[in-house]
Design brief:
The chain is built from 11 helices and 10 strands. The strands form 2 sheets. Strands 2-3-4-5-1-8-10-9 form an 8-stranded antiparallel beta sheet, with helices on one face. Helix 3 crosses helix 10. The longest helix has about 45 residues.
């Protein structure tokens, strides 16, 4: 798989599959942080130490396959332009942190379901995605991948503290389990304002679509665990499942409430957004996210029949600044991006 192939497709192959509860839950992710036992951690390592990790990962895993994760391609950050890095962030293949890390790279499977970031905050950060709500399946696969890597790597591990990581908040399991969830009705009814503090009290955090420090564009939220020490991976996943099940139930209830108390107003909002996306000539990034959220809600409620989830998933990525500039093959001003964004949305919705 070449870099160009990763760049040219806005929607990853695994996202084309419909998962459980996919009208509300877009994706499930398990991320494992690991470090080499006898190598200085990345945040204070010198260039030679960082390069040794890069070379080890390339030599042992580039071009390799494991189960459904075929033909791992290694991409070094120093070989990428600023726009190419942004595209990989927008596709959730790497974190914003990795784009600035020294001597760093990523291994990506052909279906883009698996990415292994190298020399981010830790030597290895394994990311595994599943469509819809599939916590236990994702955890089982993550365990298998972890064991596969451990056949050749001695991880930094302490019998008392668990896996050792650069940041104390990851010590223990080294795991972040997260779910990307679409909650437009809870936002419209303002119930989300009461639910987020309650979720935080259970040891979970609600963030934007690109994780820590990002905003919730298009009513999309990432819910993940904060605690990694003192609980097993299974317990963390079980507790997160309970939180997500409750959120899904509350979102369904809020949608039912909106349909029965302000059905015409909701329908008008949805179809106004649909009309702007289909015919607009200038659309800013935040507006695009909000309008796509409305249309997704309209599709899920059965109001809009001729738009698929795949098209909406594609538009979520295609309308981001990095992908727009990659598509145009040049750096664009904000105004130029707004015009191109509207053009691409029209093209996709009017096919």
């Amino acid at each position: 798989m070449s870099l160009e192939q990763f760049m040219n497709e806005a929607i990853s192959p695994w996202m084309r599959v419909e998962g459980p509860e996919n009208d509300i839950v877009l994706s499930t992710r398990i991320r494992l942080a690991r470090n080499f036992e006898k190598v200085t951690f990345p945040i204070i390592a010198n260039e030679d130490e960082l390069r040794s990790v890069i070379e080890f990962m390339k030599e042992n895993y580039e071009g390799k396959s494991y189960a459904n994760y075929q033909n791992l391609a290694f991409i070094e950050m120093e070989d990428l332009s600023h726009i190419e890095k942004r595209v990989l962030v927008e596709k959730h293949l790497i974190s914003p942190f990795l784009t600035k890390a020294r001597a760093s790279g990523v291994l990506v499977s052909e279906n883009e379901q698996l990415s292994i970031m190298v020399n981010e905050e830790d030597h290895i950060r394994i990311q595994l995605y599943f469509p819809g709500f599939q916590m236990k399946q994702a955890l089982d696969h993550a365990f298998e991948l972890d064991d596969w890597l451990e056949e050749k790597i001695d991880f930094a591990f302490d019998e008392r503290w668990g896996y050792l990581t650069s940041c104390p908040t990851n010590v223990g399991t080294g795991m972040r389990a997260s779910v990307m969830i679409h909650l437009p009705a809870l936002v419209l009814t303002k119930r989300i304002n009461q639910m987020i503090p309650a979720i935080n009290q259970f040891g979970f955090v609600v963030r934007g679509i690109y994780g820590e420090g990002t905003e919730a564009l298009g009513n999309l939220f990432q819910v993940s665990n904060q605690i990694t020490l003192g609980k097993s991976e299974e317990d963390i996943v079980e507790d997160l499942e309970s939180v997500i099940i409750n959120l899904v139930e509350q979102e369904r209830e809020a949608r039912h409430y909106l349909l029965h108390t302000s059905g015409k107003k909701l329908e008008d909002q949805i179809f106004r957004s649909y009309g702007i996306l289909k015919y607009g000539r200038i659309i800013e990034s935040q507006e695009a996210s909000a309008r796509i959220s409305d249309v997704r809600l309209g599709v899920d409620l059965g109001m809009i029949k001729d738009v698929s989830h795949n098209v909406l998933n594609e538009l979520m990525v295609l309308t981001q600044p990095g992908f727009l500039q990659h598509y145009a093959k040049k750096v664009l001003t904000t105004s130029e991006r707004d015009v191109l964004r509207a053009t691409l949305i029209r093209e996709r919705l009017n096919i």
